[in-house]
Amino acid sequence: MSTVVHEPGPVIKAGGAAAGYVDDRTGISKFLKKNLTKVFPDHWSFMLGEVALYSFIVLLLSGVYLALFFKPSMTEVVYNGSYINLNGIRMSEAYASTINISFDIRGGLLMRQIHHWAALLFVAAITVHLFRVFFTGAFRKPREFNWLIGNGLLTLGILEGFAGYSLPDDLLSGTGLRIAEGIMQGIPVVGTYVASLVFGGEFPGSDFIPRLYIVHVLLIPGIILGLITAHLMLVWYQKHTQFPGPGRTENNVVGFPLFPVYAAKAGGFFFVVFGITALLGALFTINPVWMFGPYTPTQITAGSQPDWYIGWMDGALRLMPNIEFTAWGRTLSLNVLVPSLIIPGLLFTALAVYPFIEQWVTGDKRQHNLLDRPRNVPTRTSIGTAAIAFYILLWIGGGNDIIAVQFHSSINAITWTLRVLLFTVPPLVYVITKRICLSLQRRDRDKLLHGYETGTVLRMPSGEFIEVHAPVSDTERAVLLAGVTYDPIALDTTPDENGVAPKLSLSARARARLSRAYFGQQIAKPTEDELATAGHHANELAESHTKQLGSGEHE
Amino acid sequence: MSDIQSVTPAETHGVTPGENPLAPGLPEHTPRRADIDPRAAKRAERQVAIMFAIGALTPFVFFVLYVKIPSDLLMTLPVFGAVNASNFWLGLVMGIGLFSVGAAAIHWAKKLMPDVEMVAERHDFAGTEEERAEAANQFLQGTEDSGFTKFPLIRRTMLAALAATPLFAVPLFKDLGPMPGTKLRSTLWTKGTRIVSDVSLQPLKASDIPFGGLVSCVPETLAKVEEAAGTLNARAKVPVVLVRLRPEEIRSQQGKNWDYEGVLCYSKICTHVGCPTALYEQTTHTLLCPCHQSTFDLSDSGNVVFGPAARAMPQLAITVDADGYLVAQGDFTQPIGPSFWERG
Amino acid sequence: MTRAQHVKNTHPVGDAARAVVAKRRHPFATLLVLLVALTAVGGLYAAATGSGVASASGLDGNPQQIAKGRQIFLEGCSSCHGLAAQGSSDGPTLIGVGAAAVDFQVGTGRMPLAAPGAQAMRKTPIYNQDQIDALAAYVASLAPGPAVPTAEQIDYSNANLQEGGELFRTNCAQCHNFAGKGGALTNGKYAPALTEATAAQIYMAMLTGPQSMPVFADSTVTPAQKQAIIKYIKTIQAQPNPGGMALGRVGPVSEGLLLWIVGLGAVTAVAVWIGAKSS
Questions:
Q1: pLDDT at residue C25 in the model
Q2: Residue A511 to residue A517: CA distance in whole angstroms
């Protein structure tokens, strides 16, 4: 930041010598010179992705510790240990070693709980980070690849979490796997082959946990690590987006330098996230596997639930009506296929292709480094909230039995209600969100043109009462002015020289139609002329409160 | 594309800050308290140092607690109740220590490090037209030099090789598991297999089953088979429930005389996705699955009355042996558990 | 059952109450302790005032007690169960249900029914133990049925805890959940939490199959196995939660909620602090 040349002291000199040694061999000074003052914009919502990154590091650290004691084996043993309720009970080595970690390894329970809380936090942080990116349009050009990588990370995070949930081989783990096996069997044509290959024959077999273990500790975390690296490199290279504000343009980035400010904040935040997961592990029981008992296919507990990020798929399984077709000796189980594979598949596909669809509809090929305020893109915002409503309803469906017990209601009534709400609430949320966005836009426009209401009421010489409006601050004005107003794409229907209207392709029609749906209703930003006129009014107002004001104040 | 009049956004009203004369630039920096008041700066310095000191000390506290607190010591806390003392203190100290380090760094950055916002220009990272052209040219030159275009035979065989080599892996995964075969269609139940209660493995007579009763059962042969196999595979398919209804309560069943004196035997494995289903309500004779709420009416052939399961719960035909104990008439006549493609 | 036995019978309840004071974490624990203690005191009082208790068979209650029970029945129960306990459209017959069913239903406050609903809920009993015993004696006199268990029958001190766990997970957890916290059944019915149930009540519930619950007769779950199940339930109820607050022992749903509210809330709060302009 400053251009002062620092006079090196003895320590710095020694450090300099060491740095020189490294630089001779790596040329790192060139990289540091360019990057130590790299600017990062500051906003709380930009830290959500960091939470995911840091909880992943916590997962790696605690996971390595757990791996030192966990035995990924389905060999049956008879338990004899500190937890007397299970003494003499047959169980897999995997479950027995999890009980040992919980009761005999000092600090083992803490590490187990930190690991599990961090896993829940990892997927939750990815989810809210995704929301932030979606609603602010941060996925737009040039960041589409990072959107796709993020989608991949979310999918892998969910899979990895489910694998971890399944490894201890307790009653909930095994029940979850049995459901997974049922879903695999439901795949048309190849289902039974898939299940047989995955489980090494019949369910549960003796191969699955060792196989799942290597997937959980090496394969998926390895891919996640690779994708995180690519994700961060792209953020680094493309520079972070920023919210509109004074001095912030499409072509600059305003914030704090990597070294020292951002490094201190981000590094500190890692410790904070680690600390919070440790506190969660200290204070709140998570996954008390010793109470569930070892997995056996003959037992089940009321309230058999997955972890939260699988909850919506479980909810879909619960809400789906029982449709199954059998013909020519073949069975098609839509009651399993639709909720467990088709709906998640469609949701994730929609998520992945959204940026490209939006780009096609807007025809906008430019780079975007300034974020959208969600209200300025009502259609996107409404699609997002409707999708979240859909997701939350499925999620509630996943807990319908717990809700029925806690609120003394009928599980059948809840299921039917949710089936209806699933189709009615998202459209309603869409419409309401759009209305809210448009009114907020209208308010922004009013604020820009007429200033904000000061709360001071004046009596005019004519006896009329008016409320004094003051112009918005520069900072606010910069925010309110931000945003691009699109015009809907129009179809070219001008007849050719022979007076024949051009034949319009189906995709062109669809595109124009979508474009109208997207941008049909927009509140135009004030033009420069309008702003100048309004600014003149505001000045007049500031100069003299007693002057009669123009009549156009509240149009 | 030609039929689209306007593909770029009409920026009639697009006002981008910085480009608009009315939009303000970066506001002037207002100094923080610590910037102008040395005492405030000193105070911030002290706060940061205290938090770092906590971070430096807590690991040693952690060592002491790790050694001193036995792993099975319980302690009672208000609100929390009885908890494991080791887990609580270790986690608390670790959490506080780590949090303090983080908070110290953040507080330091916020109070004492420069908070003047910097502006960096973004540079177009896409190549210029010339750079693109040069890159493309180099690529084409390389292609040319390699003879990729010149030797179609090489080109085609190379592509074939690259497409084929991953296939080495395919057969290697074959032995992940056997082919499914007909295993999904049969269970341990055979003609004359005694039905014994799960866990206690007691054979049962019809008179042992009370009206309104429920018994979770397995075949008598299961224990031996499991011992030999060392897996739970057989157990995953055999579980059944015995219930007893009065003759007038039985509206239908899946086969004639499949009950024995009102004792009915149904699979315990849900036909939806395979959860054990044993939430039996004796008043309505329904079996509810706790996983996805499929509900089966055992007084009416195990038919589905609610939920996502599409098929009735398979019934096991039972009778009694010479000693009067309940036995199976044979195996299930249909596959138990979730549907699958070849099931029919 | 003699008076001394009855007094002895109440002791485990007192112990359980103390255990609750020492170990439970739920804020309602105090309330619960009070309830349990009150019930215990009530029982002691009933014993001290010399009320009789239905005998093991339930059939040889003295005529006086049966007459008293009949009186209570006619006043409080006959409107639904019929004047001769033969049942009506509003309530099932009580002939042959035995003393245990009466003691369970009335002793847990489920009967008399407060209001029609999917299921009778546990509430404070409106009759004292003396009256319940009389009612039980009357119903038992109508036809043979399961009797109220004796103190020996519910003495689970020598029962096999681990076998109890296996039996509990095989026969009970599907409805009452892995920790006896209850679960949903169809159409608004539910398997209640076992937190307030006494050993005798759990025993009687298995024996009689109240409401939706199936019967676990002695022929399918032996008395020793019943004691083992009770021992397991009582053990896990008194068991601490080594990992910290248990979040209701209802599984991953409450864990997920806590993570979203407390966990994500905490990290977001710090993120807001980081992003806020410092002064």
A1: 45
A2: 10
- Across the interface, whether the CB atoms of A287 and C166 are under 8 A apart is answered no
- Chain B contacts of C273, Cβ < 8 Å? 106
The span from the first CA to the last CA of chain A, in angstroms, equals 48
Q: How many CA atoms lie within 13 A of B71 on its CB side?
A: 13
Please name the residues between 134 and 173 in chain C that touch chain A, using a CB distance below 8 Å. 161-162, 165-166, 169-170, 173
Output the pTM of the full model: 0.90
Please judge whether A265 and C250 are an interchain contact, meaning their C-beta atoms are less than 8 angstroms apart: no
Mapped onto helix, strand or coil, the DSSP state of residue B280 is: strand
Model confidence pLDDT, tens digit, residues B75-107? 999 988 899 999 999 999 999 999 999 999 999
CA distance B158 to chain A (A): 29
Report pLDDT for B23: 56
Percent of chain A with pLDDT over 70: 95
The full 3-state SS of A42-74, as one line of letters, equals: CCHHHHHHHHHHHHHHHHHHHHHHHHCCCCCCC
pLDDT band at A486 (very low <50, low <70, confident <90, very high): confident
Task: Tell me the C-alpha distance between B115 and B28, whole Å.
Answer: 12
- What pLDDT score does C53 carry? 37
- Asked if the bond preceding A339 is cis, omega within 30° of 0, the reply is no
In angstroms, rounded to a whole number, what is the distance separating the alpha carbons of residues C230 and C228?
5
Tell me the pLDDT tens digit for each residue of B108-130.
999 999 988 899 999 888 889 99
Q: How confident is the model at residue B201 (pLDDT cuts 50, 70, 90)?
A: very high
Average confidence score pLDDT of chain C: 82
- Say what the pLDDT of residue A3 is: 56
- What is the nearest CA distance from B286 to chain C, expressed in angstroms? 9
Nearest CA in chain B to A301: B290
Buried b (16+ CB within 10 A) or exposed e, B295-322: bbbbbbbbbbbbbbbbbbbbbbbbbbee
The token pair at A453 is 């209401």
Residues of A in contact with B281 (CB under 8 A): none
Q: Looking at chain C, which residue has its C-alpha nearest residue B306?
A: C186
Neighboring chain A residues of C263 at a CB cutoff of 8 Å = 117, 120-121, 124, 276-277, 280
Chains touching chain A through at least 3 C-beta pairs below 8 angstroms are: B, C
- Residues in Cβ contact with A154 at an 8 Å cutoff, skipping those fewer than 6 apart: A123, A126, A127, A130
Tell me the nearest-neighbour CA distance from B167 into chain C, angstroms: 42
Give helix A144-166 / helix A220-238 axis angle, nearest 10°.
Answer: 150
Residue B10 reports pLDDT greater than 70: no
The per-residue pLDDT for A538 is 56
Residues in chain B closer than 8 A to A279 (CB atoms): 91-92, 95-96, 99
Rounded Cα distance, B116 and B122, in Å: 19
Across all residues in chain B, what is the average pLDDT? 91
Contact at CB, C214 and B284, closer than 8 angstroms = no
What's the CA gap between A430 and A413, in Å, rounded? Answer: 25
Task: Name residue, tokens 């969660």.
Answer: A280
Cβ of A303 within 8 Å of Cβ of C251? The answer is yes
Residue A260 burial (CB < 10 Å; 0-12/13-18/19+)? middle
Please report the DSSP string for B52-92 in residue order.
HHHHHHHHHHHHHHHHHS-TT-EEEETTTEEEEHHHHHHHH
Cross-strand pairs, B237? none
pLDDT under 50: residue ranges of chain C: 1-25, 33, 38, 41-59
Residue pair A294/A99 in contact (Cβ under 8 Å)? The answer is: no
Give residue B12's pLDDT.
37
In this structure, are residues A354 and A139 in contact, taking their beta carbons and an 8 Å threshold? yes
Between residues 108 and 137 of chain C, which touch chain A (CB distance below 8 Å)? 118
| List of chain A residues whose C-beta atoms are within 8 Å of the C-beta of residue B173 | 197
